[in-house]
Write a structure and sequence with these properties.
With about 240 residues, the chain is of the alpha+beta class. The chain has a single domain (about 1-240), classed as NADH Oxidase (3-Layer(aba) Sandwich), CATH 3.40.109.10. It is about 50% helix and about 10% strand. A four-stranded antiparallel beta sheet has the order 1-2-4-3, with helices on both faces. Helix 2 packs across helix 8 (about 160-185), helix 3 (about 55-65) runs antiparallel to helix 9 (about 195-205) and helix 5 packs antiparallel against helix 6 (about 115-130).
């Protein structure tokens, strides 16, 4: 029986040591990755990819790239969440195709105002915001939007560094959705910050524009898999009602 959302949140811990006598069901892990693709994502661009590592040979290489830490060394499988800001044109076109399948592939004049806005969002606005040239266009756009912002609220995250953050935020939401899906079925995970991301990119044969968002070790927790009780700073220190 699967856990509720609240139960899965409480159950999920960063497990550092996994059992070596239990193998995860690959199809169940794959289903959790599919759940991750339903996570919120900026402009519905879905600028992410998921690499599901199950072969012993690749797991061994990934363990080395993850600095030999126990969460990698004992993992039965791994999932690498990759941020793909460089795919914005492809994803925008996919959104346009989807919208036309919903609205109907009509002449431009036949679309309603709302439909035109949605289509132009992906045809014009997304390319305008995401197109870069060695970071120069981003700073020009940043200056322009901040001037406009003197007179009215405006979107300001238009620099290359800003858009990297936007893409990684979406990928992080997907990673958390995956880990909670795993917790719901009694599987454990550990997001590993300590990794040589350049080596990971090379192992996965990723293009230059791809960036590693998170490497997640997967397995079933051993008795000593959790290193201590959970600590969180007092809720009152982080909760601000305005």
């Amino acid at each position: 029986m699967e856990r509720t959302v609240s139960e899965a949140i409480q159950y999920r811990r960063s497990v550092r040591v996994f059992r070596d006598d239990i193998n995860l069901d690959t199809e169940k892990v794959k289903q959790c990755i599919e759940n991750a693709t339903l996570a919120p994502t900026s402009s519905n661009l879905q600028l992410w990819e998921f690499y599901h590592i199950t072969s012993e040979e690749m797991l061994g290489k990934m363990t080395e790239a993850c600095l030999g830490q126990n969460a990698a060394k004992t993992a039965d499988q791994m999932v690498v969440v990759v941020s793909r800001k460089d795919l914005f044109r492809k994803r925008a076109k996919q959104n346009i195709s989807f919208l036309k399948s919903v609205y109907g592939d009509k002449e431009a004049s036949e679309y309603s105002r709302r439909e035109k806005f949605a289509l132009n969002y992906y045809k014009k606005l997304i390319p305008t915001i995401y197109t870069e040239f060695f970071g120069i266009l981003g700073y020009l756009k940043y200056i322009f939007f901040n001037i406009v912002g003197l007179f009215r609220p405006v979107y300001r995250q238009v620099r290359k560094s800003d858009l990297r953050i936007v893409a990684h935020k979406s990928a992080g939401l997907a990673a958390q959705t995956f880990m909670l899906s795993m917790a719901a079925i009694g599987y454990d995970t550990c997001p590993m910050e300590g990794s040589d991301t350049l080596r990971v990119k090379r192992l996965l044969n990723l293009p230059r524009g791809a960036e590693i968002n998170m490497v997640i070790g997967c397995g079933m927790r051993s008795e000593n898999g959790i290193y201590g009780p959970r600590f969180r700073v007092p809720f009152e220190e982080t909760y601000k009602q305005v």
